[in-house]
Amino acid sequence: MDALADVLAAEDARRWDGDLFQSASNHADPVVRRHAALALGRIRNPAGVPILLELLTDPDSVVQQDAAFALGLIADPTALQHLQDVLLQSTDAERTDADAEIVTAIAKIGGPDAARLFDELLVRWMSRTDAGDTPFLVEPLLGEAWRLGEDAPVVTIAQLADAPSERVRRAAVYSLYRLHAAGAARELLAASADEDALVREWAARALTRAFADSAGLDHSAVATRLSQLAADQEPGVRVNALWALGTFANPDYAGVAVDGTGDPESQVRLQALATLGQLGGELAATALTVRLDDGSLAERGLALTSLARVDRGTALTESASWITNEDDWRRRAVGAQALQHIGGDTALSWLEQLVFDQDGRVAATAFDALARGDSGWARELAPQLLTHPDPVVRTLAARHIEYRPRVAALELLVAGYGLAEEDAIPDARIAIVEALGAISELGYREQMAVQSRFLARYPTCDDYLVRRAALESLPPAAMQWGPPEPVETGRDTEDYRDIARRLVLPAERGEGLPELYIETDRGTITVELFAADAPITVNALLQLADRHYFDGGAWHRVVPNFVIQDGDPRGDGWGGPGFALRDEINRNRYRRGTVGMALSGPDTGGSQFFITHAPQPHLDGTYTVFGRVRGGLTVVDRIVPGDRIRSVRWSR
Predict the structure, then answer these.
(1) Is the pTM of this model over 0.90?
(2) Which structural domains are found in the chain, ordered by start?
């Protein structure tokens, strides 16, 4: 437990300690060695590469897998040759899950050499795969090939898109979709008729207007195929087809989306409403107007914002009742979003009034709409809003100044930073530092002014996220404040021993995982928590649940066939618990029902979490996976924005 606590402490602080990790990697207990490997990957110091390469031959297979995974997190090119040698020297009979993780690591390192290895192995095993005798590594090679970008062997991948194995087809089609592989247009069109629903989903997602243009495909032929897929028996296929159809921005296909607005699945209805806004035309306008008074608040709000793109006159009239609703800030915020798309003097005037709404969430939405429209009023207003009571309003104002820096805003930026020091979220502090950096780049005089007026007033900074922003945007502040790492975590050795005792060791010993019960308006979602893979994240979430932090919150974000998201006390996607968590990236993949930590950048987790509707391989190795839904997936599918979490409790 002592050794494990030391490893957890170093990882959490992002502190490199060569002696500690060398000792932990040689510990008699594989649990310690495994967590040492994970910690090395999460700290991402290239000095840890030699230790991880040694752990690839560890007697314990789990340690081998985590060592390979950690090498992918570091993505040091110096490890590439060793990893390639391991794959090439192993026989088929010797292949293990560690080899699959090595494939992922090589893909993350990337480059022409990695791509050549992928191509060589796939070509070597193609005939066996076509015959139904798929070698172990073919699926991971295909599934990770998208990470290689422009170096990816598209021709070879495309040849395997119709393999007998559905798992192979899934992997190949996913990479072709992520690569926007114009050279594989024929294969992606064929995949849209595959017997496997997931293959059809990803193929449909690929068939956008931009893809059709790059591949030289006839728009009407692709849109016709998407129209057929919009009636597929699987909801995920229907969602993706509607999404892709919207990119064609052609009113001729509005009837397909109108049909989708009556779909029994809420995700399909939401996507259909959004697609109507992209397609436009009289039919879309009529259908959206009807939907303003039909369905959930989320559906009616989406109908309004989509109508704003299609029929600005009607949308302007309808927006009046939304922006004047004194009882519901969400309605006023939706009205502000609609006004952004409507444009014109009247909409602009209304937005200018909404910037002074009594609810900061509405004010933030309104100012964001003004700023996105490049309003001259937004430019004049931004400095004044740096001292607004709401932290998000201050954040957006500072960002606006960063994009259009001027020294006249310096004093207000300094004053705004003082207010932001009391914020529960770091966003305003970060945005102000970045804006000050932009002003410093205007010239030597401006740089000196920033140093004398800002750094003299704020000689220190305790927030590692703000120090990281300074390192990237305001070097004089970084020099004065110090590096962002190691992080002062606020925990001592006993805290890490406690986390190891309560969470890590029981999970590693198979004594059962804690479960989270999320009671919603639609039913209960049961989540099995990965206490060994993300112990500090799980510990924080359990503490928040004990405080009833999540009770009464609303699912503020729902992206059809992607995720539902909650954990924000503000309800607009900006809120947090007043602390930040370091990422605990692990080998768990984002499949359907995976629970992950939402981020606004590396190591920015807090209380917002998301649950996936469908597999999302592009999230693997980027966002902390801390659980998986074990009951209530149909509830997840039914959630729409605004639905409530009644309570969150947990038990072992």
Answers:
(1) yes
(2) 2-190 (1.25.10.10), 493-651 (2.40.100.10)
